[in-house]
Every structure is written in structure tokens, then in C-alpha cells.
Amino acid sequence: MKKMNAATVSLMNDSFRKILFSNPVLVGGMVVGEIIIGATSLQNAIALSITFAIVTIPVLLLAPLIAYFVPKTWRILCYALVSMSMLFTAQAAVAPISPTIFDSLGIYLPLLALNTVVVAYSRLISEEKGVVFNLLDGICFSLGFLIVAVLIGGIRELFGSGTLWGYEILQRKASALKLPFSGFLIAGFLAAAVEGLRIVFHAKPYEHFSGGKEDQK
Amino acid sequence: MNEHGLILQNAPHVRTSESLFTVMGDMIVAMAPLYVIAWFYYGPRALLLGLTGAATAWVLDMLSVLACGRRPDLRDLSAVVTGLLIPLLMPASIPYYVVVTACIVAILAVKFPFGGTGNNLFNPAAVGFAFTAICWPELVFSYPAPMQELAVAGEVAAKTAVSPAHNLMLGAIPSLDLFDMILGNAAGPMGATNILVILACGLYLLVRRTIGWRAPLSFLLVSGLMAMMWPRSPFGTFSSVGWELCSGMLLFGVVFMITEPVTSPKRGFAKVLYGATSGAVVMLFRYFGGFEDGFVFALILMNVFAPLFDRVCENVLHKIRHGTLLPKNFAPGAENPPKEKKKLPKPSLKKKTETEVGA
After folding, report:
1. For a Cys staple, A176 with which of B119, B134, B189, B354, CB 3.0–4.6 Å?
2. Domain range holding A52?
3. Nearest residue of A to residue B129, measured between CA atoms
4. Do the domain assignments include residue A15?
5. Is B180 inside any structural domain?
């Protein structure tokens, strides 16, 4: 088996950390609002994750190209344009999940198209990196988003509505879990769990989330 | 003791007998009569509800302390007080799982994320109750008629009655005598209906100095004033005051919840302001809120502002004491005179020689 060189290893490490120990939602604090308000059931969570992946990965891939041609002032608009045009694809991909998915998510799918990763992260980091790095980035961000959305959506649907993917499981339900404040609570507990795991495994957070102090030394 | 006959100790040098144990013990002693009365009205189910709440809260508290990596303190009874408060706010016919849920929310979501005993931002019992009130309003706000023994376990088939607070919300004529209400012979929360016993408990806590008098007094004054000015009962102003103050969980909350030392302001005048604003907000919740009693929701709202009252009073009182609240030479209607600029000597970078110092 061919040995991987050091640069590839660090690239893989950097990206795979974004799935858990540098999760975009729980550690980076990006795209929190859409998850907390939108992810009230498992179906919603999956729909949000698919939309996030379809909308974000092309922007990260195109970021170096756009940065080459477009002046700084107009770049965010270009990213938004790309993500918004991918939104139609995402809506087509999401539609088979449930006929009522657009009613329950409503404005949050278009809002998700203009998320923090598209607006800020692509401009700060992706422009300077290569295509492979950006592709890995996009996939790992999407996976991280998927994990958090499924956990929050699953917990809230199971205990808030007593169902899971629409099938009835529990008799008793605490409907307050479907309100936004419970989303904040569960997200906070998950963030604490990730931090605990990070301490246990001695993992470093991604430098752009921790202010970059550790890696500058 | 060292050779000079002195006791060497690290700070803090506590010289009063008051401690967390005595304060929380006082609260438990004060709540005991309410449980006895609830037992008299509704049977042993009331006591079992209290035991369930206290045990759940205490066990969760100990587990959380252990999870934080601290040593559990067996003399810390604050979780027991939280667990005993929650069932008293609920009807006696409440299922046990509602009490357990409220305790879980109170300890795990309100108390420990902020750092445990003494650090909570909100009143844990209030948030636990509010959570269950949002989840199961049909259980939490349906009260059994008093003087009937409820089944200890299983489904409770109780004759329900309309509580005075609900009557007031509908603007209907109250079906009860005010005297009955004072004796607690009215449908309502398990521990909050018996006005006389609550007042006696409040007096005990006041004498023991476990609670202060400022916040309760200003609270009652303001809410009574508002009830007098905008009465909801059709019997005129003064009976309106009686009905408003005796219905729902208002008086119980005044004695046991608004005086909680952690979530209320620390300064004297801030406590007065806190009580007065809370009274106004509680009455506004009653006039415009969706539930029949918004005391708990108003309390949660006011808990956020408690540090603000402290800070404002700190600044304003300091300025009043030093006479600097108004600018100097202040005359209403006249323009303020321009401030004289003091000329500060420029700091010289030159090192002072020995001769200059000598001169």
C-alpha cells in the first residue's frame, strides 16, 4: 500500500475533524437558527440536510474560481447567486420525502440557502484552498450538519410528537419540545457532549473556530 | 488553636448560624403544613406527589453534582425544596410523570447548566412548572374539587371544579364565598389555595429572616392597586382586590418563589423595585395572558431583570448619596454652563535630574 504523504494526512485530518470535533453547528456556531427552528421532526431534519449539502458544496467548489474573476465587493453576491440557483435542485430533491414538507419548512429552505458557510466561510477560507480540500470540506460539513439535524430532529419528534418518521411510537408526548427554546436546550446539551468527547479524545478544535491561536504558535 | 489561644481559620469567617442548610430547612418546615392541608383535602396522594418530586429532584441533583466532578453535599437541600415546590403548584390529580418531568427540567435544564446551587439564572421550580404547563395545559390547569379522596395510583377519576382564577379570567360571577377561599376550600393548585396557612408560613419565614419583607410587600401593594383600578370581578373594587390576591398561585408565589435568594436582587431598594414590577407583570399576564394564572411565567421573565435592578440601584443610589445625580449648577430651563476644562500638566519624558528633584 502506498504511503500517504504528510500534506494529505493533515488535509484529511483537517476535514474529518469537521464532522464531530469541529462540527459546523455545535462548535462553529454556524447555521444554528435553521436547525433549531426547522428541525422539529426527522423528515424535516433530513430535508434540511439534503438542502444544505446541495446548496453549500457547489459554492465551496466554485469559490476559488469566483475569487479569480470577481472583485471582492461582489463575491458574496456571486456565492448567493450560485446557492440560490442550486436551491431549485434541492427543492426537487426534497419533495419526495413528504408531500407536506414545504408547508412545514416554508421559508427555512430559502433561508438555509444563504447560510453562514456560504456567506462567510467560503470567502475567508475556501477561496485560498484547492478543489480537493473544498470538496472534502463541503462533504464533512454536510455530514456534520446531518448528524446534528438528525439528533435534534429525532429527539424532538420522538418526545414532542411521540412519532418517528411519522410512525407512532410513544403514547405520551411533551409538545413543548417542538418550540424553539427546546431546540436551543438540546443543541446546548449536544454541544456540551461534543466538548466532553473532545476532552476525552484530546482532539484539537479546527483553528478557524478557536480563533487560530493554537496553530499560529 | 495555636499557642496564643487563637483559632486559625481560612476565610470566610462566618459568624452567624444561618447557612444553606438552615435556610432550606426553614423552607421545608414552612411547606410541611401546606402538605398536611393538601392531605386533608385530597388524601394521601398529595403526600406521595410531594415525595415523588423531592426524591426525583434530590437524586438528579446528586447525580449532576457527581457528573460535574464535585463532592456531593448531603446538607444541600435546595433540590428537595425545588422538588417540594413543584407539586404544590399543581392540582392533586396530576399524574406522577408530570411531576417527574417538571423536576427533570428544573434540575437538568435550569439548575446545572448554569453551575448548580446558588448559580441558577431562573427559579428552577418555576421553569419546571412552566414547561409542563406548556406541554399538558389540560392536566395542569384542571383542578379537582376539594374534600374528596383521590386514588393513590392509576387513573384518577375526580370530580373537577372551576377554580376562582378561571372564573375571574372569564369575567364570570365567582361561585364561592371569599371566606371559603381564605380557608382553602376552593379548587386550585394543591398548596396554593389555603390563604391562612400560607400567610402563617410567610410570617414564620419572615420572623426567621429566611425571606425579606421588601419584595413581597411591594408586590402585594402594586398588584392590589392594579386589581383595585382595573377590577375583573363584577362586585366592585375592594372585593376585586380580595379575589385577585387570593386566587391562583399568587400568594403562594409571593411567599415561596419571589423571595428566593438566588434569583432575586440583592440590594434592599432593588428588591422593592423587583417586587413592584413583578406585581405589575403578573397582573398584566392575568389581564392579557392565555393561561388562567401567569404568575410563573411572569416570574421567569422578571428573573432575567433581577441583576439589572441591582446594577441600576447601585448606580443611582451612589449618585444620590454623593449628590452627583444632577449635573452641577443645574437649573431647569436654563442652559447648562460649559464645563471648565482642567489643564493637566503635560507628562514630560525627560528624566528628572538629581538637582531638579532636590529643588
Report:
1. B134
2. 25-201
3. A176
4. no
5. yes
